[in-house]
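$ fold --in a.seq
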Amino acid sequence: MINSQRLAQRFQALVKIDSLSRQERDVAMELEKILTAMGAIVSYDTAGKQVGGNCSNLVAKFKGNVDADPIFLCGHMDTVGPGKGIKVRFEDGIFRSDGTTILGADDKSALAIILEVMDVIFENKIDFPPVEIIFTICEEIGLLGAKHFDYSLIDSKFGYILDSTDTQGIVTKAPAANKITIKIYGKAAHSGAEPENGVNAIMVASKAISKLELGRMDEETTCNLGIIKGGIATNIVPDFVEIRGEARSHSVEKLKRVTDNIVNTFQTAAEKFKGDPDLPRIEAIVQNDFPNTNISEDHKAIKLARKAADNLGIDLASKTIGGGADANIFFGKGIVAGVLGTGMTDVHTLNESIAIKDMEASAKLVLEILKVHAAGEIS
């Protein structure tokens, strides 16, 4: 029932609409037009104003024609750069860009698939539950759309986000993450005339970093320091350094332990350099970036997806990943979101691609999920 030609054409049309983070308005207007023509009630929240964008999260509601709990389908409208003026190439069943930009399958493939599923439902007069479609903004720059989403606009307590690669997998576990900023305050002095009168913030930073274990801590925990900024000239003892990093773990306890260790290591290094009563001084800022996702295998969202996959002859595998997605934010709000794959590969690179057969497979699974849910086969 999936119309491969229509799916391909719509995907190409969507990726040709520029929609870098905070610039999603044009693609949102196109999606609104399509969804309204299908009979959806479309609305927006106010997230765009809160994140400084030109568009907000889009919500489209379909009433359904059976008595069932509402279910949501979600994808994000923004892409990473370089994502302006995308030129699509389609050869041997695979979509690519011309090599000067990303393709935008992350996550335009999700948008096209969700629209195709709804088209098929209406064309074939298939029974379906109440469906709430959520197209978010600014996912690529810190899940900002989901973080500022007005959750009062939806009634669904579970659903699916199409934002992964494997069309035969569902993400059930993803880590929580903390953003960590360390500011080191030292004292400037002439590096040739009176270096002993200065307090070298870079030296403090280097001593602390040398004591840290970075990278993979264990199978469920990682940490990284990714940005260091400090100093203004080679002949001045640097009086300030800022370091930014992160810690991630599937265990909340481990996340706290790793985060505390990073902060304490910098504090200890500063103490060993004390010459001035107040310098060097450490300021540590820790912010939770997103909570973890941990969906039970017996949750309805998982059982429903597995039943649908089984109907299609697919063994749907549970996936544990190391990255965050809108699903993490939803989960933190008490809303369960299983993450499904669309087949996109090499995302965030100029080599990004996606096969139409994988998009078809993803659409078939989502369609079957809605059919199984409408039939009330899973409680």
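$ fold --in b.seq
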Amino acid sequence: MKQLGLKAFTDTYLTSFGLIIFFVFFVCVLLWVFRKNSKHHYGDMEKMPLMDEEFSNARPK
């Protein structure tokens, strides 16, 4: 079964090129998430579910 699946991957340069592309994308996402000065933004985002002022008008009292 494994050999039948691997027969389709004859172009090893394409699979390694795809691996490189996804690895570079993953590293870029990590750099974006852990960039400098993003701690304040994520601090505000983690408190959003606890803020009730935006949704207080939408609920029936």
